[in-house]
Amino acid sequence: MNINNQHYRTIWVDPDNQANIKIIDQRQLPHSLVIEDLRTIDDFARAIFEMHVRGAGLIGATAGFGMYSATLSSSNDLLATLQRAADLLVKTRPTATNLAWAVNRQLAVARNAKTPEDLKKKVFELACQIADEDAEACRCIGEYGVELIREISRQKKGEPVNILTHCNAGWLAFVDFGSATAPIYAAHHEKIPVHVWVDETRPWLQGAKLTAWELMQEGVPHTLIADNTGGHLMQHDMVDMVIVGTDRTTATGDVANKIGTYLKALAARDNNIPFYVALPSSTFDWQLSNGVAEIPIEQRSGDEISYVSGINKSGSMENVLVCPQGTITANYSFDVTPARLVTGLITERGIVKAEKQDILRLFPEKK
Ligand code: MRU
């Protein structure tokens, strides 16, 4: 998507040096656009753990390139080096399934390589392919999802369709287009009037910092709200639909997404508002059937709760403490919304009910 009218992806290969992978350091947004170079496996692990990059699809694409970066080491045993890189990467963020998915694809391709040169070539090609597939899947999600928005717009006789979203499942969370935002961007480009309610998404504020910025860059009308506002808006007919992303989805349609998503789903159900989850199929964890019991929930540093970051009046980034020094905190990063609260899953192959049979109808090879 666009930054100052110039097209960017969230991760790309340096055209002058294939060993250099470029990312946008998302910790600096929306106040500065900082492009960072990743060169070593430690750079990649740090970028994922410290959330220079974040969001399920982008974490997967970054891990794919991280594995490629590990092949550039001078080791004589590239398979052992890759296994160590895989072990390091999968520990960085436990909830988003795309991480292990990308790493395992790279290990499989490496094991089938005939020579070290062949291995390096194949792992590089697969890293690029994982990134391209992610962008393409999100583009398709936009094509399917826009049909839902078009239908609501028709019923509202052209009045703006109000869509609530939580966290950032925008292009910054993927390689391009985003999952939850792809249908919104598609609608906006079709000139269907839309308006997005953007949950600020404490503690890290992905909504306030990233989603609001993305939508502003694309000229999509939106309003930033405090996290607890959605229920009130729904009670007053100010939300037509909810679209969120997911970091891991069970084969039965339970979804793990940013903390607070479950409460939005409950409020949507109470107010009869459709609650859609948009995802590329790389987000399915086909082994799981009970999200609440089985999806690992990442717990991050309590500092993300105690401190808020932003720019001060002189324009420099600052972290300020918002609670009494020494307050005990708990920072659960994700929660699970059970399938029964999900109206439908918007995937790159179409829209399905959040139930095993319907999901498998679209992905028969997973039976
Ligand atoms: O902790 P993050 O920022 O990596 O969390 C991921 C998210 O942005 C959300 O949970 C998102 O809605 C789904 S990921 C596409």
List the defining traits of the structure above:
367 residues; alpha/beta; Four Helix Bundle (Hemerythrin (Met), subunit A); Rossmann fold; 2 domains; four-stranded mixed β-sheet; 18 strands; globular; binds 5-S-methyl-1-O-phosphono-5-thio-D-ribulose
SSE layout and pairing:
Elements: E1 2-3, E2 6-7, E3 11-13, E4 21-24, E5 35-38, H1 41-49, H2 56-71, H3 78-90, H4 98-111, H5 116-155, E6 161-165, H6 181-189, E7 194-199, H7 206-218, E8 222-225, H8 230-235, E9 241-244, E10 248-250, E11 255-258, H9 261-270, E12 275-278, E13 284-285, H10 291-294, H11 303-306, E14 307-311, E15 317-321, E16 334-337, E17 344-347, E18 350-352, H12 356-362
Parallel strand pairs: 6-7, 6-9, 7-8, 9-12, 10-13, 12-17
Antiparallel strand pairs: 1-2, 3-4, 4-5, 10-11, 11-16, 14-15, 17-18
Task: Give a structural overview.
Helices cover 40% and strands 19% of the residues. It has two domains: 132 residues, Four Helix Bundle (Hemerythrin (Met), subunit A) (Up-down Bundle), CATH 1.20.120.420; 225 residues, 3-Layer(aba) Sandwich (Rossmann fold). It is globular. The mean pLDDT is 97. It has 367 residues and is α/β, with parallel strands linked by helices. The protein has twelve helices and 18 strands. The structure holds 5-S-methyl-1-O-phosphono-5-thio-D-ribulose. The site of 5-S-methyl-1-O-phosphono-5-thio-D-ribulose has 17 residues, from helix 2 and strand 11. 5-S-methyl-1-O-phosphono-5-thio-D-ribulose binds next to helix 2 and strand 11.
